[in-house]
Amino acid sequence: MKINKLYIAILLSAGITLQGCKDNSFLDVPSRENVEANDSEQVFTPEQFVNGVYGMFTSWDYSFSYIGITDMISDNADKGSSATDNGGDKADLDNLTYTTTTGSFKSMWTRWYKSIGRATQAIEYTEKFGLTDQAYKNRLIAEARFLRALNYFYLVRGWGDVPIQDRDLIKREPASEVYAYIEADLQFAIDNLPVKSAYAAKDLGRATKGAAQGLLSKVYLYQSKWQQAADMAKTVINSGGYSLEKDYATIWRLAGENGPESLFEWQARGTSIALGIQQYSQVQAPRGGLVKLGWGFNTPSENLLNAFNAEHDNIRRDATIIFRNSTLYDGRVIDAGVENAMYNMKAYSSANGGADHTDKNVRYLRLGEIYLILAEAANEVGNSSEALNALNTVRTRVKLANVTTTDQAQLRQLIWKERRLELAFEHDRWFDLIRTKQAKTAMAANGKTFQDKMMLFPIPEDQRIQTPDMPQNSGW
Questions:
Q1: Higher pLDDT, 351 or 283
Q2: Within 10 Å of residue 340's Cβ, how many Cβ atoms?
Q3: Quick one: CA dihedral 334, 336, 337, 341, positive or negative?
Q4: How far apart are the C-alpha atoms of 316 and 422, rounded to whole Å?
Q5: Among 194, 276, 343, 372, which is disulfide-ready with 322 (CB 3.0 to 4.6 Å)?
Q6: CA 95, CA 74: separation in Å to the nearest integer?
Q7: Residue 55 and residue 63: Cα distance in Å, rounded?
Q8: In this predicted model, what pLDDT tens digit does every residue of 16-71 receive, in sequence order?
Q9: Count of CB atoms within 10 A of residue 393's CB?
Q10: What does pTM read for this prediction?
């Protein structure tokens, strides 16, 4: 039984490779270009196919292109590194001078569609393999559908109308249809995934019911489906499966990986720190000086620092920003000779020491954000009491005074500010600015000119060359 449908949009020609991060046992999968279920040399299990989808998060794309189009492009971050090192297209992203040929867009468009193709193949393979344990079969399919939904969520937020691969490789479906497709995948995942505590230790990091519920609440938020977002967020909060980490800074350290607050993380840590998410920490680690840990890209902006200071938010500031001429929690000294004044603490790996591969899990979704989803959604439906309770739960952890206003417009602005401070460098700031229509004002305050066409990313020029009938986004 050959697996013929690869569903890869970009260039329409990429093969699949079942290769993942070997730091977690469930990601320890072989590499193979062509896979047949009845191959006499090796038969791949459905679980290995699903593991290959997780492995897509460990690639170089997530260490450079990803941080470029999610952080550097926003008011939270500057390009960093040295003034003469543009990082390919990173100066263009930072300065909002990017075009249809900006390579980071092509890289992530390709990565997300390849991941979707791999997830769809895993679903089809699992469905046809002949598994007799229906619960196990449905769990594997649910994991793949969760991962497929996550990748489509990036695409629809970035580009709006996009192709749905198993329908048409070229036709751009309305964003509403893409969201409906995502919702269907996540609902199946919710119905068929176990809770976090039900997994064996070897499977820690797999998608869970709570992860699917949390992602669905976020998907509802981005569509302004306020009541549904609030209801799903409350389902996660009230499930009893998660709790806020008491110390905010711990979330980003070894002790916080897959901790009580974590709904979903990209797994990287294991017995060897030489394997993991390729260069995620190194690319963002302090550059120069005596430490020489990394390349120094994606540095916190003065604008972000001022936002922390204006709120007197020292706890989250110091858990988010590495300052020049300081000593870190593990005793490492960041001397006065490093090239930039600030670096991203949330990407810092104490054990990594500047190695090419990171041992640090990337936190994708956590309970702190779920509380803020509930706060925003509850405020929008007029439930200020519920909104304040959720908002102040997050603020209390970092020793900030309770918000008391019940004015909907004022509370909305305060919740948006809280999202920025709580979730800085968690790769959602740009999408939040677009969603809340703050981008033009926020980027102007950061000294950058936002154009209306930037409400959506440009379809990569290479994709348009391969599929000229695919329409470009307006203004590009």
A1: 283
A2: 20
A3: positive
A4: 7
A5: 343
A6: 9
A7: 14
A8: 333 333 334 444 433 333 333 444 456 789 999 999 999 999 888 999 999 999 99
A9: 18
A10: 0.92
